[in-house]
Structure formats: structure tokens, C-alpha cells
Amino acid sequence: MLKDWLFDFKFLFFPEFCLGCNVLLIKEEKKICITCRHDLPAIDLKLNNSDFLNLVFYGRVTLQESASLLYFRKSGKVQNIIHNLKYKGREDVGILLANWFGYELLAEKRFQTIDAIVPVPLHKKKLRQRGYNQLTTFGMRLAEIYQKPYVEDVLVRKYANTSQTFKDAFSRWMNVKEIFDVQNTEKLINKHVLLIDDVVTTGATLEACSIALLKINGVKISILTLAKAE
After folding, report:
1. Any idea which architecture 41-229 has in CATH?
2. pTM of the entire structure?
């Protein structure tokens, strides 16, 4: 009874809205409404959806495994959700997505041989401006599910680059090709690394990160992204 009263009080003064469509959430809904939850363009993780990234990196980086969780469509619900995660301080979205998909990935034996989870890093300047890396809560929760370490002090971004949003494939690659490096490399020697990112479009950022990680002896790489451009 007290719990219901507290919810009603919070609902009255601090209503919550769906991160996908911005409608008012009802009591049973958490962060994303039931309609959006069922309408999200999720990728079937029972199928091998590695072909897209393997094709992107063909002849450049050899991947052990790759997957994306959702299709990213401009002006769509996934874009709204990731925008909230990335720019609106909604780090709780990362936990939500990890809980939704992490156990499914584990059950389907995706990435079953990984040794560590590594996020695409932000530059120190951008990290100070934003206050967080949008991948942290997702990666840390995923690490808990897989019972593997979350390693964010090996792959580093040497300097800030301009936004990738409106660049073509070649420009994206030129924008990121030399901005990543590695430190504390002993942590990942002979390890199978799961490299995570939010959205993959041309793969330029992930390729640059992979090339940096491959400087470490014995490293193998798999990739997981929250979404991939359709």
C-alpha cells in the first residue's frame, strides 16, 4: 500500500516518459513503454548476424565473432533511445539493454570465449564535457552477466576528433585512423577482447580501435554494438 502511494506521489510530481516515443509511462512500464518494447527492430540473436561486420572489415581486420542488437533507423525509436543514452545522461538505458539482451547472448553462446570487455573510449576532453562514456553502464552490466572484467584503461583515444555523423565512409576513416592507441597492454596479452560500441555505420571507428588493440601480443577481437545502421 505504501509502495503504491509513493508511486502515485512520484507519478504526480515527477512523471516519466518513454525514451522511445515520449508518451507518459504507466506504473508497470520502466523507461520504455510496452508498445515501443515490442516495436523495437531487434535483430534475431539466434541467427548468425556477423556477416555485416565481417564484410565491412574484410581484408582489414579479422573478427572472431560480431553482432548488433538493434537496427538503427533515422528518426526512429532506436535513435531516440540511443540519443537519450548518449546525450541526455540516461546511463540507465545501458543497464536496461544489457539486461534485455545480455542473457540472450549468453544463452545463444555468443562470445562464449571472450576474456574481457573493452569499450570504444572517449577523449578526456569529451568525457569531461559529457561526464560519462555512454558505453560504461552497458559494458559493466554485460561484464557482470558474462563474469568477465570490464577493461577501460587499455584502449585510449589520443585526441578528440570531429563528429562522424555527416561524413562519408572515406572521411570517417580519415577522421579516426590514427586517434586510438593502447597502454597497460599486459592486461590483454593473449586475450579474446569483446569490443563494444553504440552504433556502427561504416565501421571506421571500430576498425581503428581494432588496429590499435592488435598491437598487443596474441589479442583476438570480437565486436558487439547496440545498433547497426540499416
Report:
1. 3-Layer(aba) Sandwich (3.40)
2. 0.86
